Amino acid sequence: MAQANAAPLATPLADRHLALGAKMVEFGGWLMPLQYSGILDEHRAVRSRAGIFDLSHMGELFVDGKDAAAALAYALTTDPGSLAVGRAHYSMICFPEGGILDDLIVYRLAAERFMVVANAANAGAVSDALAERISGFSVVLDDGSLATALVAIQGPLAAGVLAPLTDIAVDELRYYSAMEGTVAGVPALIGRTGYTGEDGFEIFVEVAAATRIWDALMVAGTPKGVVPVGLGARDTLRLEAGMPLYGNELGRDTTPYEAGLGRVVKLAKEGDFVGREALNRAHEIGPRRKLVGLIIRGRGIARHGYEVFVDDRRSGTVTSGTQSPTLNQPIAMAYVAPSDAEPGTIVSVGIRDQRVPAEVVPLPFYRRAT
What we know:
The chain is 19% helix and 34% strand. By secondary structure, it is α+β, with helices and mostly antiparallel strands. The model has no long low-confidence stretch (mean pLDDT 97).
């Protein structure tokens, strides 16, 4: 994994990004494309057609062995043993004190084999925590992050673009499921998962095969208006979809209950797990703050760190904010006092030197038609 103060790592698709004129930035220890044609154009392409993403900076951790399900049930807040083979679920790994170390996707690849996908900036910490927590179980942990590339295609046209390139029945692959097959003749794990609020697929392959997958998707998708998409549009897409970002909505000082994600804490599962006592206490006491959506009703964009007020009382803090390309109005997520979290509540956000009115609304801001 990337080391502190080390030069950023390059994904196997770095040359493709540069050839496409991408603006590159450091993110989570990696050099990643921020945008190609522009954040607005890329965002709208995903909502109306599809976009192709390089997600090779994410961490892929494989847990194998007869105790794999029990080991992960102890290490994480969910119960991966309840997954059928080929299914996936959203999960979290928490500190003993109840704060969030990272949010994850867990795939059950076989009866005794799981893949845990971690955020890039936290992949090393998650790998270390898993190694410590599962040390007493009959399992093997393989950190495959640097050997695995991940390319995603997201949007209404995603299935149509991918189907001719793969030997799996795309239409039969359920949401939050994964299947081994080939894409462009390359062995791959294809998951129907994503971080945009649209239908889409994430394709895990060996690093050496990444360019072949990327090129095949680009050739098949470009005539249909499919475009490469960078981190900038990925952020605006996930914000519209009400999906949390570690370091903004999630962190060590946040419990899943405060983030509105108490569903991923399986207090009823058998056996102990790291953080159970603290999370059970947090569940009984109730959240000290709640994550809400805000529609800004005045002029200005609410950015990360801006304060939220009710009258002259400080209620909380904005975690993410942008001008929504789909809704064509400013939106934000924020933590506020539980008493101020009811939809319809009018608050104000400190933007520059002004208090700008905003309305609390349910999340997500955007939900695709089914």
